[in-house]
Amino acid sequence: MSTNWAAFAAAEPELATTVEQRFGAFTHHVLATLRKDGSPRTTGLEVRFLHGELWLGMMPNSLKALDLRRDPRFALQANPGPGTTMGGGDVRISGRAIEVEDPRTKRAYTEEVEPPEPFHLFRTELTEVVRTCVEDDTYLVVQVWKPGEPVRTLKRT
């Protein structure tokens, strides 16, 4: 089961806001895709939250775009930033990336973002959102959301 960003944000607005803020704190993040042989590939990437979707834009024929065309599964890790503070916690999104070929949709995207032309554009379908943080300098808190389920919160000392 998967869902888009708007459905996640409607279901869990507080966690969605925190995740968007973490991704908004820095420009570049880490995308994990699967190579032909099934091994992981990690690469840098900029992401955008626009029109109720989480978008991944890529240069033409980049290896990560070719990976996603072959196998749409991905994991996206927010840039933790300098040092060890990770204000807002550590966040990760997993799901499937669906390439957008529709010229109207791509044009609407370029009205908000100025990607180099040509480019690959992927819309995401979320299968999991995870936030890990430290609370009160005592607890490790892990929040896990999956489509159709409420956020599950785990605390460890």
From TrEMBL:
Keywords: Oxidoreductase
Gene3D superfamilies linked to this entry: Electron Transport, Fmn-binding Protein, Chain A
Pfam families in the record: PNPOx_N (PF01243)
Domain Pyridoxamine 5'-phosphate oxidase N-terminal: 30-129
Coiled-coil region: none
InterPro entries per UniProt: F420H2_bilvrd_red/Heme_oxyg, Pyridox_Oxase_N, Split_barrel_FMN-bd
Protein name: Pyridoxamine 5'-phosphate oxidase family protein
Taxonomic lineage from the root: Bacteria, Bacillati, Actinomycetota, Actinomycetes, Kitasatosporales
